[in-house]
Design goal:
single chain, alpha+beta, 2 domains, 4-stranded antiparallel beta sheet, 5 helices, about 30% strand, globular
Length: about 260
Amino acid sequence: MVTNAWVLSSTSVQAQTTVPVAAIEKQLLDLYQTTKATADGTDIVTAGSVLVLQKDHLLMDPVDQAIPTPNVYKNGSIAGLAGAASFLKTVSGLGALNPFAKSTAMTTVTSGASATREFVTGEKFWVTKIETHSDGVTLSLLSDPIKDKRYHATLTFQFAKGSAPTADDVAGLVAEVVKIDTDDSSQDQPAASNGKQQQAAPAESAPKTIALGQSRDQVIAALGAPAKVVQLGPKEIDVYPDMKVTFLRNQVVDVN
């Protein structure tokens, strides 16, 4: 009986700390449309969401470096591993003791510490992949050309050990670092556009629209003040005559 009670207790704790990986990934993919890049990362095939950085110190290496610069968001700030490629180049001299010695990547990696670039608040880039695991979420990032050179990196949001964050928790965490750009006119025209720039409609005839990731101020600027506001914990629902707009930490996460 004691053994059975322990098993039930252990199972209960495990259930409580199960991370809803599929739900988290689905919500993030709904919020942030991924971009498809060419195999070498030098151009955009299909454009997705343009993200605006909300924190300083994101490190990115040129795409000709085989390994994107890894960054981790923790305790409200970004920490990046500068010159990851340089580190691998250094350890390549360890011969048989080096686990990367026979890696094909080693033949393409060159010293990149001096080429590493720090991105700061307000700079923009694309997200090419979102990977969710039981211990965190990783975004793969790609910049537009800067002096004819694109940069790439990964940004990982680690979950606290033993925690079971919800999809909304993780979306809020990611929103602390990036937001969707609502005016991407400064970005390159994606390759998928075939060089044909879309003509913008005259301002006076443009419909009033809102998009995922917009702030509440932007929604009110487009639609006016809501008829009713409902507070549900971290969520806020603004009710309009023909729709309901749901916000999480001041960003649109649902419209119906």
